[in-house]
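Exercise: predict the fold of this chain.
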Amino acid sequence: MEDQIPSKPYVGDGRGILHQFWELNAARSFGQEGLHPISYSEITAYSQAVGIRIPPKRVSILSAMDRAYRGAIAEQKAEQRRREEAQKEAERRARGR
């Protein structure tokens, strides 16, 4: 019976989903290409570990939050690479004078 999804529903204010997202985010895996998406199996494992049932609508919201977060991180990294390349180019030009 321990492997069944808990039946106790999550009830909380708007901070609850953020708390869940940050806990899932802290446990996510990542690789050379960046952050891996939070999988449904990770959400299920989290749900079981904390003893709550996460409704399908909330799972969809968590997934959307994850996509937005990973997109923002990827954009930040791309901007950082652009700044670094611009700095290198400026240094090359300065040496060439």
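Check your answer against the key: Confidence is low (pLDDT under 50) at residues 1-9.
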